[in-house]
Every structure is written in C-alpha cells, then in structure tokens.
Design a protein that fits this description.
6-stranded parallel sheet, globular, two-stranded parallel ribbon, alpha/beta, 8 strands
Length: about 150
C-alpha cells in the first residue's frame, strides 16, 4: 500500500503542472518501502512532510523543485546528507522548518540559501556553529527560531 501512495504522489507532481502546494502528513508508522519518493515539479512552491515518524524519510526523499520557496520537514528524521541533497535542488527557499528533526547536526548547505528569510530549528541537534554560519551568510534572513537545542555550546 505504501508503494501505491508513493506512486500516487509522484504521479500527482508530474501530471499537475500548476501544483503549488503539497502537504503529506502522517504516513503509517510502520512505513517501509524499498523505492525512493521522487518529487519533481517545476511549479511547486510549498512542500510539507510533517506529523509522522517517517522511519526511512532520510533514505527515500529525492526532491527537485527549483521554484520551491517553503519546505517544512517538522518531526521527520531527515539527516544532514539528505537535507543537503534537497537544498542543493531547491535554491530559492525562503522558509525552512526543521523543528524536531533530531538527526540534523550540521548541514553544509544551510548557509548557501541566499534567499532564506525564515529558519525554524526548535528541538534539533543542529550545532550552534551551523546556525551562526546561516546568520553570517544569509543576508535576507528575517526570522530565526532556535530553542531547546541539544548541541548549543
């Protein structure tokens, strides 16, 4: 059944060239698939994958959305490597929510998001040095929410 959901999502993003917002919430907790979820959309502006444990999100998500301006991965288990891969393909991000993404410690790509205006990183393991790099390099930044984080030194 999960593979059918993944196929539906991929088909939706490919067949709906005007799609602007895609929200995925609470996939089954026993979610498991050997195939990747590939989201490719030239028009998608906002992507939300929230509210579930997503045990294999860090292995399955392949996102290529050059117009994406808002990405919400709240409460997912995405890791540094896979977040960097997503950010590499979404250079126009204005808003990123990685609240409660416990696998994140030090994303190399966060500081390269020149259009970033909002960063929400509550309850993460994101290192303070990474956040300071964002503050130095992202000149359009307006809001940083960084609290209850474990790697503040």
């Amino acid at each position: 059944m999960v593979d059918a959901i993944l196929e539906f999502i991929e088909d939706l993003t490919q067949r709906c060239p005007l799609l602007k917002i895609l929200t995925l919430q609470s996939l089954p907790k026993d979610y498991y698939s050997t195939r990747d979820l590939k989201i490719v959309s030239a028009s998608l502006l906002k992507l939300e994958i929230t509210g579930g444990t997503y045990p294999t999100l860090r292995d399955i998500l392949n996102c290529d959305c050059p117009q994406l301006i808002a990405l919400n991965l709240r409460e997912s288990n995405i890791d540094n490597f896979n977040l960097d891969a997503i950010l590499r393909n979404c250079p126009r991000l204005h808003s990123l929510d990685i609240t409660e993404c416990k696998q994140l410690t030090a994303s190399r790509k966060l500081g390269s998001l020149r259009q970033l205006r909002v960063l929400k990183a509550h309850k993460t393991n994101l290192e303070l040095g990474c956040v300071l790099d964002v503050l130095k390099r992202c000149g359009r930044l307006q809001t940083v929410e960084y609290s209850r984080c474990h790697n503040v030194v």
